[in-house]
Design a protein that fits this description.
α14 runs antiparallel to α15. The chain is built from 22 helices and 26 strands. The protein has three domains: about 300 residues, HUPs (Rossmann fold, 3-Layer(aba) Sandwich); about 140 residues, Isoleucyl-tRNA Synthetase, Domain 1, CATH 1.10.730.10; about 100 residues, Nucleic acid-binding proteins (OB fold (Dihydrolipoamide Acetyltransferase, E2P)). Helices cover about 45% and strands about 20% of the residues. It is globular and about 100 Å long. The protein has about 625 residues and is an alpha+beta fold. It starts with a strand and ends with a strand. The structure holds 5'-O-[(L-methionyl)-sulphamoyl]adenosine. 5'-O-[(L-methionyl)-sulphamoyl]adenosine binds next to β1, α1, α7 and β12.
Length: about 625
């Protein structure tokens, strides 16, 4: 049986569109997956989406849609983006899938059987942004300690997990597995956190509907983090009859996560697994953040970068390269278009692109469009290539991608230097296509083949292009010297790999067109024309009847007079701020030509407008004096 490697990304929240933070984690996971496959591992690479919880419920309500519809829409965008970025995941799990829910139920069943779950009442400060409770002592200025989100006092009955019983077991496990968390500095933080004492964890919510019902108690849903973490095993069939994948791939070799969610993966998840009698993952890597102006990007700060325009203009490879080369894996790094372009021009257009073009032009000319007829045994370039390959492998194994790439670029520089030193053009002039010339050019081409093989995990499409020109197929992609076939026709010249980009022209253009698109997308504040605005039909309506939608805490069903023949039925998420009785007779503003939607089984044919306060509660918009129902608003 071959060696296996199971790698996961976090599953992404669907309350917002993906940005570079999400792209980064997934690209890194893809690079590792491709590298491991290349090294002969049977890889299972999992990614997916985290679709339950208050964050999603609120975002959906704010957008006047259902959580499931919002999730479906954002998931579509993720699929598209992963295609654009050449991500080779083997599975995409969604927490709303039945297979996942079965896994969560099984985990809870096992934890209950182990005697680790009890019911008690709970009160604490809850941050909806982080989906977590914080003790009073951890709050900063009355807000959540990490991001400064608003917190709210929540009190309710809840199921608890006996996390406190796992403090010693976790510390013992950490002691026996010094590689469990990387980088080491993060491991130390985790250990200190556990040494500081663990409190039992509330793992159900009675106040929330959008989640997996607690097994045997419909009044509660499972806490999102218990739900989310289970994806790593439910995707392998845990909780179902078919445990083949689970038997083959669990425990995971690597959970790749951002440093903000390390504690969930290194403390809670291992404790849940211990309780359920399951093996623990082998390693968790907590990578750093991409910063914009020295701050973490987040939707709430409004400084999110979505470099869709870079992917549109350059394709996936340059961005993948930038991610891996610019960030020292584990630390934070700044993102900017300037830094991206600088790397593009220096490392790709100039470094890789020019060296490849220069060498290939000579090879084509000297050997009639074929690879050189004679290979070469020993040479300085071979020595360099072998030293670089060894260093590359070592760095890739320890996830020091920037070092691995640095090594590859050293080999490129060595090829350049070798060509200048040997001056093959002089030899060709003097001797024609001689044996000596053949050996020199063989060394150059073989080095470039190795460069392509080594860059493959990071820039798959560029590597394939180079390998196609060098006529080396996949079987020959091993990282050993001497695989280049002699005297075979080279593949066609497809032009420069990375055309140089003029920075000034790029920024001028970015500002005028693409950048505007990028900006609009990134700030989620697109400009609309007056014509576009005109398509939205806003009308004053009078509420005739109002009642709560059964089983829903927030939804209210309204019949509204819009001056049409029949009253309109509208469902609005305002039930936590308004009693149905107080709505009757009110004048409100309605988007009258919105596509109908069904919310909890009730059709809504329009949307009312309300201001949204910081805590998400709505305040209805109403005309400042009495106007007849059906009056237009503009
Ligand atoms: N849903 C949870 C994870 C559950 S895993 C069982 C979650 N989702 S997330 O969408 O908010 O974040 C997913 C990943 O994106 C995290 O690893 C996070 O660190 C990463 N990033 C989000 N913003 C980031 C940057 N600005 N930079 C780098 N990565 C960051 O957390």
């Amino acid at each position: 049986m071959g060696r296996t490697f199971y790698i996961t990304t976090p599953i992404y929240y669907v309350n917002d569109l993906p940005h570079i933070g999400h792209m980064y984690t997934t690209v890194v996971a893809d690079v590792i997956a491709r590298f491991k496959r290349m090294r002969g591992f049977e890889v299972f690479f999992l990614t997916g989406t985290d679709e339950h919880g208050q964050k999603i419920e609120r975002a959906a309500r704010d957008q006047g849609t259902s959580p499931q519809a919002l999730a479906d829409q954002v998931v579509g965008r993720y699929h598209q983006l992963w295609r654009q970025l050449a991500i080779t995941h083997d599975d995409f799990i969604r927490t709303t899938q039945e297979r996942h829910k079965a896994g969560v139920r099984e985990l809870i069943r096992r934890m209950t059987e182990a005697g680790d779950i009890y019911k008690a009442s709970y009160e604490g400060w809850y941050c909806a942004g982080c989906e977590a409770f914080y003790p009073e002592t951890q709050l900063k200025d009355g807000r959540c300690p990490d991001f400064g989100h608003a917190v709210e006092r929540l009190g309710e009955e809840s199921y608890f997990f006996r996390l406190s019983a796992y403090q010693e077991k976790l510390l013992a496990f950490f002691g026996e597995h010094p590689d469990f968390v990387r980088p080491t500095s993060r491991f130390n933080e985790v250990v200190r956190f556990v040494e500081g004492g663990l409190k039992d964890l509330s793992i159900s919510r009675a106040s929330l509907r959008w989640g997996i019902p607690w097994p045997g108690d419909d009044g509660h849903v499972v806490y999102v983090w218990v739900d989310a973490l289970t994806n790593y095993v439910s995707a392998l069939g845990f909780g179902s009859q078919n445990l083949d994948l689970f038997a083959r791939f669990w425990p995971a070799d690597l959970h790749l996560v951002g440093k903000d969610i390390l504690r969930f993966h290194c403390v809670y998840w291992p404790a849940f697994l211990m309780s359920a009698g399951l093996p623990l993952p082998k390693q968790v890597f907590g990578h750093g953040w991409w910063l914009k102006d020295e701050k973490k990007m987040s939707k709430s700060l409004g400084n999110v970068v979505r470099p869709d325009y870079l992917i549109r203009q350059f394709g996936a490879d340059p961005l993948r390269y930038f991610f891996l080369r610019e960030m020292t894996f584990g630390q934070d790094a700044n993102f900017s278009d300037e830094a991206f372009l600088a790397r593009y021009n220096a490392d790709l257009a100039n470094g890789l692109g020019n060296t490849f073009a220069r060498v290939m032009a000579m090879a084509r000319r000297y050997f009639d469009g074929k690879t050189p007829p004679e290979a070469c045994g020993e040479s300085v370039l071979r020595t360099k290539a072998e030293e670089v390959t060894a260093r590359y492998l070592e760095s890739m194994e320890t996830y020091e991608f920037h070092r691995a790439l640095e090594a590859v670029w050293e080999l490129l520089a060595a090829v350049d230097g070798y060509v200048t030193e040997k001056a093959p053009w002089g030899l060709y002039k003097a001797e024609g296509a001689s044996q000596r010339l053949s050996r020199i050019m063989y060394n150059c081409l073989e080095s470039l083949r190795l460069v392509a093989v080594m860059t493959y995990p990071v820039m798959p499409s560029t590597a394939e292009k180079i390998l196609a020109v060098l006529r080396t197929d996949r079987d020959r992609q091993q990282m050993v010297w001497g695989m280049l076939p002699v005297a075979v026709s080279l593949g066609p010249d497809e032009g420069p790999l990375f055309p140089r980009v003029d920075e000034k022209a790029f920024f001028a253009e970015v500002n005028v067109s693409e950048g505007q698109k990028g900006q609009e997308e990134s700030q989620q504040d697109p400009l609309v024309s007056i014509e576009e605005f005109g398509k939205i039909k806003l009308v004053v309506g009078k509420v005739l009847t109002a009642e709560r939608v059964p089983k829903s805490q927030k939804l209210v069903r309204l019949e509204v007079d819009l001056g049409e023949e029949q009253p309109r039925q509208i469902v609005a998420g305002i039930g936590s701020s308004y009693q149905p009785e107080e709505l009757v007779g009110k004048l409100i503003v309605v988007v009258a030509n919105l596509k109908p939607a069904t919310l909890m089984g009730v059709e809504s044919r329009g949307m009312l407008l309300a201001a949204t306060l910081a805590d998400g509660s709505p305040v209805l918009l109403t005309p400042e004096k009495e106007v007849p129902p059906g009056s237009g608003v503009r």
